[in-house]
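Researcher: We're teaching a course module on how sequence relates to structure. For the next exercise, students receive a sequence and then see the predicted structure as tokens, so they can try to spot secondary structure elements on their own. Here is the exercise chain.
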Amino acid sequence: MVAPIRYGLVGTGMMGVEHLRNIALVPGAEVVALADPVPTSLGWARDALGDKADRATAYDSVEAFAREAEVDAIVVASPNYTHREVLTPLLDMDAAILCEKPMATTVADARWIADRAAELARPFWVAMEYRFMPPAAAFIEQVHGGRVGRLQMLSIREHRFPFLEKVGDWNRFNRNTGGTMVEKCCHFFDLMRLIVRSEPVRVYCSGAMDVNHLDERYGGETPDIIDNSFTTVDFANGVRALLDLSMFADGAEHQEEMSATGDQARLDVLIPPGELVFSPRVGFRNPKAVERTMVEIDPVAHAAGSHEGSTYYQHLAFAAAIRDGAPVQVTAEDGLRAVAIGAAAEISAREHRVVEMRELGV
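Model: And here is the predicted structure for the students to work with:
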């Protein structure tokens, strides 16, 4: 028997529902409280809980949740710009917290959260699901194991569909998201730091809104979020990394591709289908020696979300941190630094210049 964990969910929109579906797969986990000011969103959560919905008390405010809910763990999946406000009462509760990415939409708010989280005796975890995609995890393990030799170049490509509609259309404006490079790309900047094992020193981003949302109007306003970009990040250890983003390439076979190139080989991962491609150096005009392997994903975990099973594997690790004191794999400090790189990229894209990370005080 595993020790039970009583979960509360704050923010019951699209990503909140994905968390519910994956918590249901964790042995000993039960959702006992929900909080959201939007009745429709609470209805989605109840639908996701199915015959267990009656066991979860619903609250229409985070303040009521913080006063009354008896939980061991809290998942925060409210809109990005609300995270600091939502976390303020939750940090005083005796519960572990898993906060969705980005941890905040500004560096100042992310620093405030990181400072508060550092004072806690219980886990505070930032939900960077991409770390936990089995193909990505295998890729990272092999790079860290030295399979490419000394890493010098890292390339990440995400060519995908446009931003989906969210309640109140909050994700159409930089003021609510921190900008695309924070909202979406914090995942990839987190991966860069994890893979490179160093800190960024400068960022250059060329990006704009060129295709998506041009004809949309919300209260007379036109969206202002980047839909394509190239971002180069120089790291202190000499490694350079590139992010190639397109939000209007939903026909691409692979939504994500990562390539790590070292002095001995290159390693690629293609997501989907979860293929690893190893290409050792062979010398000019010699036969190639490419090796291809597939990384399997639990089909039940895969079906429970839209992140290649990663939300499930992340929740298993989060539960281990709660029950067994296992390490928090994505700390608030990690969340802060991912936000800071994204903020630097947003400044760079707007001002058409290189941004030194020291300008952001991180």
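Model: If you want an answer key for the exercise: Residues 264 and 284 are 14 Å apart (CA to CA). The chain has twelve helices and 15 strands.
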